[in-house]
Automatic annotation (TrEMBL):
<dbReference type="GO" id="GO:0005739">
    <property type="term" value="C:mitochondrion"/>
</dbReference>
<comment type="similarity">
    <text>Belongs to the TRAFAC class TrmE-Era-EngA-EngB-Septin-like GTPase superfamily. EngB GTPase family.</text>
</comment>
<protein>
    <recommendedName>
        <fullName>GTP-binding protein 8</fullName>
    </recommendedName>
</protein>
<feature type="domain" description="EngB-type G">
    <location>
        <begin position="123"/>
        <end position="296"/>
    </location>
</feature>
<keyword id="KW-0479">Metal-binding</keyword>
<dbReference type="GO" id="GO:0005525">
    <property type="term" value="F:GTP binding"/>
</dbReference>
<dbReference type="InterPro" id="IPR019987">
    <property type="entry name" value="GTP-bd_ribosome_bio_YsxC"/>
</dbReference>
<keyword id="KW-0460">Magnesium</keyword>
<dbReference type="InterPro" id="IPR006073">
    <property type="entry name" value="GTP-bd"/>
</dbReference>
<dbReference type="Pfam" id="PF01926">
    <property type="entry name" value="MMR_HSR1"/>
</dbReference>
<dbReference type="GO" id="GO:0046872">
    <property type="term" value="F:metal ion binding"/>
</dbReference>
<keyword id="KW-0547">Nucleotide-binding</keyword>
<dbReference type="InterPro" id="IPR030393">
    <property type="entry name" value="G_ENGB_dom"/>
</dbReference>
<dbReference type="InterPro" id="IPR052279">
    <property type="entry name" value="EngB_GTPase"/>
</dbReference>
<keyword id="KW-0342">GTP-binding</keyword>
């Protein structure tokens, strides 16, 4: 079945949005009923199938969070970079399957490591999540794995909760690593632990650097950014907790971040990803991006990564 290249281009009519939802439901029907059957107590927005029950405009904001902000931007602002990675919903459906556990594709917590010599040698591509304590790394990983609630990812209001590098296996496809945070109440050996990993990990395909969208870039974030630049390994900025502030604050913080990325970085992907783990906004898009980066899916749309 064919789909529009930009399923929710801004300014699309209610009719086309309605058609889109209908097509999406049709897609999701035959295969997904099987893999959705065993999911109890899963957040209703964790799966695309359930998300499509939302009104079209709301669904658009969940799948492509930037479209919600676009209306508040001056027309003179070039928004190309904010939508470089803009997969079709069909691609998101494919990615969702990778984030769903099955007997032939097990998703599980694998191991925790405190030092580099505890880190397992793995062949599959790996992605890791770094950022200040409390920025929402573990919550984000928990949202990514929400379709497999048996995989326990611990989160806490108290900064400095994650003390070790926690490895999660996604079948044979890739590994996800939750890192301890830096800054306030960071584990003492953060530098001994995380830096060597980032500098030497051979199978690391992407580092995700999280910043809190409700407070914007902090001094500690700029230090982390400098470290990522020094490593010269590709990384991506993720803007978390977008539900916590109004459009004005978020846009100011986002524009400031975009300016820093543009003027001070060379290894950073130009598109920051907007996320709310609480409301599942941007989670489907990020799942798809991870699957794309790790070579786990082939996109139907061309994109510029
Ligand atoms: N409103 C809102 N709160 C969030 C979001 N993501 C995380 N939080 C909250 O932020 C706090 C910290 O979340 P964690 O995921 O534990 O943060 P972390 O980055 O893993 O923290 P450390 O392990 O200490 O480095 C918790 O109280 C979460 O509920 C979000 O998208 N929106
Ligand atoms: Mg954590």
């Amino acid at each position: 079945m064919a789909i529009d290249e930009t399923p929710f281009s801004s300014g699309s009519s209610e009719t086309s949005r309605g058609m889109f939802c209908l097509r999406l439901r049709l897609w999701l029907q035959p295969a997904s009923q099987v893999w959705a059957a065993s999911r109890q107590n899963v957040h209703k927005l964790a799966s695309l199938q359930k998300a499509t029950m939302m009104p079209p405009r709301k669904l658009q904001g969940i799948l492509y969070p930037f479209t919600d902000l676009e209306a508040y931007l001056d027309r003179s602002v070039d928004t190309t970079h904010f939508q470089l990675f803009h997969p079709s919903v069909e691609d998101m459906v494919q990615s969702e399957k990778l984030f769903s556990s099955s007997p032939s594709h097990k998703i599980d917590y694998y191991i925790s490591a405190e030092r580099m010599d505890h880190v397992p040698v793995l062949q599959q591509p790996e992605v890791c999540f770094i950022g200040r304590s409390n920025v929402g790394k573990s919550s984000l990983i928990r949202a990514l794995f929400a379709l497999t609630p048996e995989v326990e990812v611990r989160v806490s209001k108290t900064p400095g909760h994650t003390k070790k590098m926690n490895f999660f296996r996604v079948g044979k496809a890739f590994t996800v690593v939750d890192m301890p945070g830096y800054g306030h109440r960071a584990p003492k050996d953060f530098v001994d632990m995380v830096e060597p990993y980032l500098y030497t990990r051979k199978n690391l395909v992407r580092t995700f650097l999280l910043v809190d969208g409700s407070v914007g870039l902090q001094k500690a974030d700029l230090i982390a950014l400098e470290m990522c630049e020094d490593i010269k390994h590709p990384y991506v900025m993720l803007v978390t907790k977008i539900d916590k502030c109004g459009h004005g604050t978020l846009l100011t913080n986002l524009m400031n971040l975009q300016d820093v990325v543009k003027t001070q970085t060379s290894s950073c992907f130009p598109q920051p990803f907007l996320l709310s783990s609480l409301q599942f906004r941007g989670i489907h898009l990020l799942r798809c991006f991870i699957c794309h980066l790790t070579g786990s899916i082939r996109l139907t749309n061309t994109c510029h990564t």
